[in-house]
Amino acid sequence: MSMKRFLVFLLAFIVLLIGTETYLNLRIFPHDLIGTYYEVPIGDNYKLVALSTEYCSIVGNDGIVELDSIDSIHVNNGSIIGKRWAFGGNNSPYFCFATNTGQISRYETMEQLQQERNIQFVTFTTMIKYYWNKRRMADILATVTCFFVSLMLTLFLFKKKMNRK
Predict the structure, then answer these.
(1) CB of 77 within 8 A of CB of 98?
(2) What is the pLDDT of residue 11?
(3) Based on CB atoms within 10 Å of each CB, which residue in 81, 117, 138, 157 is the most buried?
(4) In a 10 Å sphere around its CB, with 0-12 CB exposed, 13-18 middle and 19+ buried, how is residue 158 labelled?
(5) What confidence score (pLDDT) does residue 68 get?
(6) Each residue's pLDDT tens digit, 102-140
(7) What's the rounded Cα separation, in Å, for the pair 163 and 153?
(8) Which residues fall within 8 angstroms of residue 64, CB to CB, at 6 or more apart?
(9) 78 touches 44 (CB < 8 A)
């Protein structure tokens, strides 16, 4: 591949990728244009919202914050199990939020949560990891598509040029 072909391919790839990622940020994953606000729908008119990479909140579509200062989460069949950064007082560090009812159950220990909810194993993840795991497939698909479109465009442009000679 000549340098000119490579530069055309690279330019096309970069332009397509920037356009595709912008579209994903505006339409598919709204509110993440510059990476300062993350939002992931969790079902039944609730979403996880994070303004930082450390903590998130569970917010209803009406804008009411149900739970905040959530440190890590585990999504499990219509419920969010999580650990909060405890402020002290009556704020228990563990919780289970049922997305279908909006009910919050609080627990003092992880063992208590597992016993009452009949859950054997819980793997917590941070909000930012959960967000990127939800988004990963769309990003991979966008990158692969942009690569092949750029490659075909480059081959098509240079094939036409070669036919003219």
Answers:
(1) no
(2) 95
(3) 81
(4) middle
(5) 85
(6) 898 989 888 998 898 888 888 888 888 888 888 899 999
(7) 15
(8) none
(9) yes
User: pTM for this structure?
Assistant: 0.71
> Which secondary structure element, helix H or strand E, spans residue 138, and what is its range?
helix 127-164
Q: Token pair for residue 78?
A: 């219509």
Using 70 as the pLDDT threshold, list the residues of the chain that sit under it. 1, 30-36, 53, 86-90, 160-165
- Residue 32's pLDDT is 59
Extract the tokens encoding 129: 């990891």
Q: Are 96 and 105 in contact (CB under 8 A)?
A: yes
Query: First CA to last CA across the chain, in angstroms?
Result: 18
Residue whose entry in the numeric block shows the structure tokens 């009949």: 118
- Closest C-alpha to 96, from 111, 127, 74: 74
Helix H or strand E segment including 76: strand 65-76
